[in-house]
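Researcher: Last one for today. Full complex below.
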Amino acid sequence: MTTPVLDVRDLQVTFSTREGLVTAVDGVSFRVDAGEVMGLVGESGSGKSVTGLAVLGLIDPPGRIAAGSIKVKATELVGQSEKALQKVRGKDVAMIFQDPMTTLNPVLRIDTQMIEAIRAHEQVSEKAARERARDALAKVGIPSPEERLNAYPNQFSGGMRQRVAIATALLNRPAVLVADEPTTALDVTIQAQILSEVQALCAETGTALVWITHDLSVIAGLADKVAVMYAGRVVEEGPVADVLERPIHPYTAGLIGSVPSRNKRGVPLAQIPGMTPQLSKLPPGCPFAPRCGYSTDPCRTIRPERTPYPGGRAARCHNPLDVPPNTPKADAARELTP
Amino acid sequence: MTDLTPHAAARPVAGPAAGMPQSAGRPGEAAGASDKGVPPPAPDKGESLLRRHVSSFFESWSAIIGLVLLVASVAAALLAPWFAPQDPYDLANLSIMDNMLPPGEIFGMGQTAYLGTDDQGRDMLSAILYGLRVSLTVGASSVLIAAVIGASLGVLAAYAGGRVESFVMRVVDLQLSFPAILVALVLLAVFGRGVDKVVIALVVVQWAYYARTVRGSALVEKRREYIEAARCLALPRRRIVFRHLLPNCIPPLIVVATVQIANAIALESTLSFLGVGVPVTEPSLGMLIANGYGYLLSGNYWISTFPGVALVIVIVAINLVGDRLRDVLNPRLAK
Amino acid sequence: MLVYLIRRIGQSLLVIAVMAVLVFLAVYAVGDPVAILANPEATQQELDAIAARLGLDRPLWEQFAIFVWNALQGDLGTSFVYSESALTVILERLPATMELAFVALVLSILIGVPLGVIAGLKPDGLAGRTIMSTSILGFSLPNFWIGLMLILLFAVELQWLPASGRGDTVDVLGVPLSMFTLDGLSHLLLPAFTLALYKSSLVIRIAQAGTREVMLQDYVRFARAKGLSPRRIVMVHVLKNMMIPVVTVLGLELGSMIAFAVVTETVFSYPGMGKLLIDSINRLDRPIVVAYLMLTVFIFVIINLVVDMLYAAIDPRVRLSEAKG
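Model: Here's the assembly. Have a good evening.
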């Protein structure tokens, strides 16, 4: 087996707050190979965005990486100096964010913001950098890129801005791209375009893609594998088709059940009862137990460990769902794609 | 001109952000209670709220220092006739023989001039204590009057809306677009010197702040249910405005007014320094500083410096208290 | 835009008109200039003659009409003291005040922005908290007292800088300026610094709030994710965003700086139009006071108008930064 370009192990991120130390990410491990796409799924507050930021070394006080390891191309990032991290960010690991309206600096022209990204890592002339920026814009489908370089962000639509952000992030051909819900704020039609563009670009350059989202339907058509997070932990992981078709963890099943789809018209949408727990007040057992229809006594007292299952899958559950062997062959993954 | 001053006006309204009750309200309360060992909020809301404010006020050292200095200054000013070494304005007491004594010399009937004497042989310590009286009186009374006028107009504007509101706020904007110092200077040039005239000038330049502050909070309060309820009960308008609306706009007013006392004192001292403020017979701290200004260059520093120090102590003390009050009364602003 | 411009200019003219009435009425009540100008032993006839010469014997409304008519022609009366056109007397002193205000403005940015940025980057650090609490002092301490203390320190004790006057000037495009001579600069430094201290507190507050806000923006996070150095992020991304509110507010404050120069000029015996105002008030030189006030109102209205226009012109981006503020 080759070394993965991104290898996260037992990552633990804590925030010191007024109510004490809160563990936002607890023991998260995953690996992504070159050209592979991993979906990181969870509700807001599940720790998925914090995990993404941790990969870039962008956890600010009062937060910190308390334990674990993050290796990019076999280089350890945890514990590196800020200076060393600067050299990695934007070069080996890049990130794009949720709201394209705010990721670009409103008072700087597009060329400034793109060229600085190149020149932060390479000694190239302003002119050469500008050419690269222009080519990158053309590649993400921005018409007349030469002119657009001179524009300010507010002269672009939301979808166009996200394209600019993607082009900027990919300028230095990073080994890993972390995408933190980059399509959530966009129109559905543009979402789909951007999704396929990012996928194509990453495949072309062999960039490993970590796609953070709360939307399972996005993952279904995009990712190779998926990790589902709940309350700072990965509760289930595995190849995307398997996980969506036969979820092991009741939480994953709940998530799948709450996605609207064509085949369930007229049927009330399933909901997961209750609310996401406050991280500072996690129950001693399984954090999902209070909301879980399958919870038993051990769930409330003993924290479930990560248990591997065949087919490269794993889950943290005392009562894994028993998948009936004769489920109708409705391909859950395909059903979920919009 | 309305759009020129959006910052201060918009802040209080923008405060209560969406979704704050759950995340911001609860932990803050809980933390506040556990920090000080205060029992959880009692059902008697009014009293426990006050007690919580008071105890949270005393959490800050700088606020305590400010309060102590402020109380000491007020006490010194009030009690000046009893413990000042001399009555500095009873000319019979003054002896020209004692003029320009540096600090620590003996003057008059063998008393020590701890802070020196001025060109007329006046004990500076006594002069400062009496000057403090004038400064504090002018500051406090002008703020009180201006706050009453401004708050009434502000709450009226917010409640009445329409033309009344736009007229009042136009005048407020116009007033605030000219610097206080200039307006006060012209008014005093017109009126002439006098403690009462300084107070009037300070009221004129200040009322607009209160009108704007109170209108801001009244606009928020106006939409709350209890006003709706009062209207449904068909209570008279005046009662709704003054008994229901106004009291709920008081906390921000207190914060503005506290800090404004310091500003009023500073402005009064500036005007007196420029020679258009209080009369020579009732010198405030600013006037004492002006009197000593001419001697500063010749090395007799004490005549100007000590009244200045007293002035600064009072102003800083008020600001420390005001700053803490803002944090306590408006937890949303406390970061 | 054109409609807005016309409406705004109309409003400005209205403000000037209202202020003209107020100023005239107010100043009309300032003492009796005849008594000051005349010889103490003058007879009633002589007094009447002076009053007639100055036009003070006519009814109030007539005096006002004459005042407005003359003002429209740029004549704001003749100074009782200088026997010269009041406007000329003031305009002679305008460059000194403008120079003072301008240098103070620049100083307040040079002092305020770096301190504000430092305080904004580490709001809970020792430096940040010290800067912020010191800035409260800058706000609340009386400016004239700060001036006095600076004189005491730099002019009396250390004898580094002169305590009063304006020093040598050189004509630049026909305007006498002192900031280009060493002597003039040494005279300018203390008063400008005193005047700047007050505004730099304001700049510190705006810069600190702006920095804190900008640092939390997604585009700063994105800039960090691009691997930019903190230096570049602060110098380019943060500073450029923050300068919009700083410049806007300071533009508005230029007027109040001219007004505040009254105090500073008096403390430092600086021969600008602020000191002239105080002297004229004490000498009951009505036309000078009126001319000063009208000129100041005019400057204020112009500044407000220009800032409003700029607001409207750069609307989309300003609205954007407003919405975030």
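Chain B touches chain C through 47 residues (CB under 8 Å). The mean pLDDT of chain B is 76.
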